[in-house]
Amino acid sequence: MYRLICALLVMSSVLKAQQTQPNVLFILADDLGINALNCYGNQLVESPNIDQLFESGMHFTNGYANDPTCAPSRAAIMTGQLAPRTSIYRVIDRYKTAKNAREMRRYMKYLPPVSAHLYSGNSGLCPDKLNMARVFNTNGYATAAFGKWHLGTGTSAMHNIGFDEAIETKNHFNFKSIPSQNDYDSLVYNADYCTKKGIDFMTRSVQNNQAFFLYMPYYLVHAPFDPKPQYVRHFQNKLRGTEYEQERVIDVLAMIRSLDDSVGELMQALTELGVDDNTIIIFTSDNGHYRVKDNNIFALPYKGNKGDVWEGGIRVPYIFKWPEHINGSTSSDSPIVHVDLLPTLADMLDLKMDKSHVMDGISLKKVLLDKGTVSRDIPLVWFYTNYSGFNSKTKQFQSKWVNVIQHQHYKLIEDVETAAFELYDLQRDPVEQSNIISEKPELAQKLMDKLEMAKKRCGLPMPLKNPEFVR
């Protein structure tokens, strides 16, 4: 009897430790715009599970990505730092690799900062840099990641960066895995595979009475457009005869439905494992939505798309759930950006961190736990250095080097090539139709000064003159 009582006391102590140390499930969608969920206002979209998450937690109405493309944003999520500190400015240097790269460079006045290469061996996110995986690991969590990485290969690969377990996957059907796995075939859907791996990891962690951090960066809804046939048929029937009966719109809707299925399976697993009440769930996206055949339906009402610093290119959904801590069916208009995620989680969970690691974000713990407002002393800034989409006829770039600062509800955009500025009042003009730079010169100058201070604080290199520039 004595031994039995002792065993029960030990078991109770272990279970209590698991119950008091919250788990974290971080779900990251790919290219999912602010208007690509039913709960955020798009009635065409079917996302019942994410809608349920939305209703049971807090969502943000002013959520931003740190970049309108994926790699810099993912680096910001992992490190809490902006691109000048991670050296991941771009996905790829198109002004070096494109077929018309030589012609492109003739029309670039400046050379952008050197970016860590993501596709060559031992290059990408610095393996020695503090990141979200290592923070949770050093605080006693079991850690895992399954899905898209896009932050480097070799020593910078996802399975080498600090997770206990990690499998990178690319594409949808007939997907590739790194390290290469042999437990699936070409008919298995990437998202389904990653979800199964994630649930298996959570199950083992709970069985071992160990708190877990699970990072689920799905490849959905990034191209290639490779949805499940049954969902394509479903939306074809649903939209027949409407203005939205377009192949690509239907493909995206079908892919969002698959993403929602995976979110639902993860949430159901938490419930079945009995840890739903003790798990923080975060759902967001890496950047704004791409344009679908001249249709901006997944970024409306905002201007721009993925690859733009307009609101449509950088606004993304943010949803947080933590039963008995975060009030359900609530919203916040506080700005939130990717670099805020690491400091927020560290603050909420009292995680120990290397104090020498500078973070560019702030903690939103008070907002999430309904304990007050948060003042942001450091304005939101974007350093978008991606020269791409060059038109040989017009000699213009679809995107080029622009720096952006947003303070309170004013947004200033600097065109580095032309030294021209634009100013928008997002409170009165959220769709950025009226450039008020000439109406508020003093305000514009204050924002210019703040932008220069941000550049120096983060270590953004000065523009270098391009010796090939001829115009």
Structure description:
The chain is an alpha/beta fold and 471 residues long. It has two domains: 22-379, Alkaline Phosphatase, subunit A; 382-465, Arylsulfatase, C-terminal domain. It is built from 14 helices and 21 strands. The protein has a nine-stranded mixed sheet with strand order 9-8-6-10-1-11-12-2-13, with helices on both faces. α8 (190-207) runs parallel beside α10 (247-273). It is globular. The termini are far apart. Mean pLDDT is 94; it is low at 1-18.
Structural class label: alpha/beta
Strand content: 15-25%
Give me the Rg, rounded: 23 Å
Tally of separate domains: 2
Uncertain segments are 1-18
The total of beta strands comes to 21
The percent of residues in helical segments reads 25-40%
Largest sheet: 9 strands, mixed
Highest CATH level, the class of the largest domain: Alpha Beta
- Measured between the Cα atoms of the first and last residue, the distance is 89 Å
* CATH fold annotation of the largest domain: Alkaline Phosphatase, subunit A
CATH superfamily of the largest domain: Alkaline Phosphatase, subunit A
- Write down the overall mean pLDDT: 94
Give the number of helices: 14
Going across the major beta sheet, what is the strand order?
A: 9-8-6-10-1-11-12-2-13
